[in-house]
Amino acid sequence: MRLRTAPVLGVLLCAACAVATLAGQSGTAVDRDRLMREVATLAAPAMEGRRAGTAGGMKARAWLVERFGEIGLTPAGTSGYLQPFTAVGRNGRAAAANVIGRVAGTDPRARTIVVTAHYDHDGIRGGALYHGADDNASGVVVLLAAARHFSMQRPRHPIVFAALDAEEMGQRGAAALLESGLIPRDAIALNVNLDMLSRSDRNEIYAAGTSHHPWIRPIVEEAARPSKVTVRFGHDTGGGADDWTTQSDHGEFHKAGLPWVYFGVENHPDYHQPTDTADKINVTFFGDVADMIVAALRTFDARIP
Ligand SMILES: [Zn+2]
């Protein structure tokens, strides 16, 4: 609905020479040891599966507030970094909170890029602990890596980093963020949602959503060109189980008519099982994906008017 074909083309032409630089930066952007340490922390038994409203969920939230502070993000919630809300969803009711920080952009006219990743998971059910390492400790720690990168190398667009709660209750954190008006809707250029990034037997990750917003695809393709992972497109048409359009937090941006792209891997046998643990992560694949996503964000920052 907002293809902006002419302006995007203009930016493409004048920014073409910057591509090598963007790719080069991505190669050194992400500390892989830190990625793995942080995933192990979020997926540890001490976090009790991070279900919204539980002690484990609050522990994960407090840990994220510390990381946001360490990185130096500007608080962008309703109370510091936090946006508390009551989540009412498919598993009942919970005292939930999003963790939201911001990096200022250098261009006062540029609209905001919103990076999201949900930090909640399924908690403890029937005595079994659902660690949620891939789903979605992996997305959260890549969000942190991107926040570190852009806090050191300021973007042109303002970037909001939102670690969302209560996705597993039906994307309640994303809904609460959009309903809050914390980021005015007409100030949102793009949502980049990260959910399940750390393992693939085929060395593949999907960038879903480009069927709805075709201008996004060439930007992702350019950013992904030097990557060792294969970025595939799809999972965004048909309306069935294979259509991921409404299956994670980007779905709320979609319902609001805002452009989005969702990075995530194909389902695997440990998806929503107690066996989704940190030791199952493919470290090389995960690091390559993190680099590609930081490069994609840099490229969006360069290309979006
Ligand atoms: Zn998830």
Structure, explained:
The chain is an alpha/beta fold and 305 residues long. The chain has a single domain, classed as Aminopeptidase (3-Layer(aba) Sandwich), CATH 3.40.630. The protein has helices at 5-15, 19-27, 32-42, 55-71, 133-152, 172-180, 216-224, 250-255, 283-303, and strands spanning 74-75, 82-89, 92-103, 112-118, 123-125, 128-130, 159-164, 188-194, 204-208, 230-233, 260-264. The strands form two sheets. Strands 1, 2, 3, 4, 7, 8, 9, 10 and 11 form a nine-stranded mixed sheet that branches. It has a two-stranded antiparallel sheet with strand order 5-6. Strand 2 and strand 3 form a beta hairpin. Helix 7 crosses helix 9 (283-303). The two termini are 16 Å apart. Residues 1-27 have low confidence and may be disordered. Zinc ion binds at residues 118, 135-136, 167, 195-196, 248.
In short:
The chain has 305 residues and is α/β, with parallel strands linked by helices.
Question: What's the CATH superfamily, by name?
Answer: Zn peptidases
Total number of beta strands: 11
Uncertain runs are 1-27
Shape: globular
Largest sheet: 9 strands, mixed
CATH topology: Aminopeptidase
Structural class: alpha/beta
Structurally, the number of domains stands at 1
* Ends apart, CA distance between termini: 16 Å
Strand content: 15-25%
Indicate the CATH class: Alpha Beta
Q: Notable features of this structure?
A:
305 residues; alpha/beta; Aminopeptidase; nine-stranded mixed β-sheet; two-stranded antiparallel sheet; 9 helices; globular; binds zinc ion
